[in-house]
Each structure stands twice: as structure tokens, then as C-alpha cells.
Amino acid sequence: MLLYQLTQWFEERTTLQKALHSGAAESPGDLQLRIQEVEDQLHSHAERWKNAIQEASYLQFPYENPHLDDDMVL
Fold first, then answer.
1. Sign of CA dihedral 3, 43, 33, 15
2. How many CB atoms lie within 10 A of CB 9?
3. How far apart are CA 35 and CA 53, in angstroms?
4. What pLDDT, on the 0 to 100 scale, is given for residue 72?
5. What's the angle, vertex CA 45, arms to CA 44 and CA 46, rounded to 5?
């Protein structure tokens, strides 16, 4: 679900930027504001995702069977 939301926001940002650069927009200030809102959402969710990954890595147990790495299992 998170990746879907991120993809949607990236697409919206791209569409808004194209409209802004094409000059077809009636109110470029509104477009700039919406682009900033979308980018803020992207940054916020990316930060949450990063923190969740870091927290999950703290919960992992250390690898306890290094002697098994030498086995030639095919």
C-alpha cells in the first residue's frame, strides 16, 4: 500500500510539474503550493519507512551459526 501511495504522489508531482513548466496553468502559485504539499507527503512517508526499517533491524537476532557457512550444500 505504501509503495502504491508513493507511486501515486510521484505521478501527481510529475503531472503538476509538467503543467507548471508548460505555462498552461492559470495559477502557477497554486501549482507550486500543491507540488510542495506532495513533496512534503513524500518526505514524511519516506522518513517513516526509513525509521520502520531501522527499528526492525534492531529487533533482529545476531547470526548464531557461522560454522554452517562453511558447508558445501548444493
1. negative
2. 17
3. 27
4. 58
5. 95
